[in-house]
Structure formats: C-alpha cells, structure tokens
Amino acid sequence: MVKVYTIASGKGGTGKTTVSVNLGTMLAQLGKETCLMDADIGMANVGLILGMQDVPVTLHEVLAGTAVVSDATYSGPAGLKVIPSGISLQGFQQADPEKIRDVMGELVKKFEFLLIDAPAGISRDGVVPLAVADEVILVVNPELSSIVDALKTKILTEVVGGHVLGCIINRVDQEKTDVITKKMEKVLGVPVIGIIPEDSNTRRASSAKVPIVIKYPSSPASLAIKRIAADLAGVE
Ligand code: ADP
Ligand code: MG
To answer: Which amino acids does the record list as binding ATP (predicted)?
Structure first.
C-alpha cells in the first residue's frame, strides 16, 4: 500500500523543499519505491535544487491537461522518481490544482511512498495537497511566526479532512533542542517527529544541485533526515 505524505508549513522558507527532496532520496536509498511531486506549482523549487529545471514536461502540463503524468516523471538521486513543476507564470496560470487528485490516482498504484512538496500559505493550490495526503508533516522553524502559521495549517488540514502526523523542527540550534521540542508539542498539539539542526552544508548541497544526504552524508542535517526516513520506512 502506498503512503502519501504532504510536506507543508504555513510560512514560506521553513525548509519544506529541502526536507521533501532529502527525505525522498533517503527513502529511495532505503530501497523504497518513492516518488516526489512538486505541488508548489507557483514557486516550484524541486527541479531547481535537483538540476531538473530544463525538463521538457512538468506537472504544470499535466495539471493543464496537455500531458500525462508519466511524461513528467524523471529519475532522480538514488532512484527517486521526481515530478517537477515548471517555473513559468503562464504554466502556473494554466495548471488546475484540483487535477492533483487524478494524478494521485495514477501514482498510488506504482509507489510505496509518495511525497508531496506543498506550497506555503492557504491558497487553493495549497489546500488540495493537505486534503489528499494520508499524513501531513509540518516543517516548522523555531520562531513564533513559523509556529503560528504551522498551527493555522494544522487547523486547515483538519477542516479539509486531512490528518497531521507531526512536525519536523528545522534549523534548530542544537543546544536548545529540549526546550523547543516541549514548546512545539504544547503549541502545535502534534508530536515532534524529527529535529534538523541549522547546517551550512544544506545551502552548499543545494547550490551543487545534489541532496545533502548524498553530498554530505555525515553532516548533522543529513543524519537527522536519515533518522526521520528510517522511522517512516519502519527500519532500524
Ligand atoms: P521552503 O521549501 O519551505 O520554502 P527551502 O527548503 O527552499 O524552504 O529552504 C529555504 C532556505 O533555507 C534554503 O536556502 C535552504 O538551503 C535553507 N535551509 C533549509 N534547511 C536548512 C538547515 N537545516 N540549515 C541551514 N539552511 C537550511
Ligand atoms: Mg519550497
């Protein structure tokens, strides 16, 4: 059975794309048939950080009804399958986010894990990924605005019939881990399923267009993401 996880946040820039790409890569490396779909159709970044920005067909065309999903599916790191979105404004305008439901119908037959990189905010294109997932994972930074926006996304998820598995706290100062975990669980009311430290190799890896878990496998952020992936995959 496929497991569909949407990686969401509320606030922009918390690390959703970084987490999606690296979690997907790790699940693939663990031998799981995994697909990552970039549902951030307005501000698509998955293709950019994987060096797939020039692919001929993207999720935009699929959501516009002019291509099928297999044409927009590419091989990424460690065998991860990637469905990037396009970066043109016109492509975004022609894409119908509701069609994500049909795309999912196709993908669930083929994969064990489907990760959906969601947009920030609470627009229509952001709501569909929250509703279609088996579980939503919130990526939150240890600052008030990020926590408040994540709470809003949690409530929205429940309103549209989705379920939040928990949150990943990203860009944490390692000395403050205990305090921030307790605070987050209290305010958000969901378990903390992972803590990723602030790690300058994250940006370096993304400039090199290689996931940090491959480029710097022993870096603190990589180790944290590997732990989360192993938990999701149910391996030691
Ligand atoms: P989002 O998809 O939520 O907008 P991104 O994944 O694009 O966020 O990350 C935003 C920025 O933060 C990127 O420049 C990324 O390299 C950086 N970043 C993400 N996680 C970390 C981390 N743990 N340590 C340092 N920088 C990070
Ligand atoms: Mg993003």
So the answer is: 11-18
Is position 6 annotated in a ligand binding site? no
Q: Is 20 in the pocket of ligand 1 (CB under 6 A)?
A: no
Nearest ligand 1 atom to alpha carbon 20 = 6
Total-model pTM: 0.97
Query: Rounded to whole angstroms, what are the CA distances from 71 to 24, 57, 66, 67, 167?
Result: 20, 6, 10, 7, 33
Enter the ipTM.
0.99
Distance 44 CA to ligand 2 centre (A): 7
202 within ligand 1 shell (Cβ under 6 A): yes
What are 7-57's pLDDT values in tens digits? 999 899 999 999 999 999 999 999 999 999 999 999 999 999 999 999 999
Domain membership of residue 52 as a residue range: 3-233
CATH at residue 218: 3.40.50.300
According to the annotation, is 18 in a ligand binding site? yes
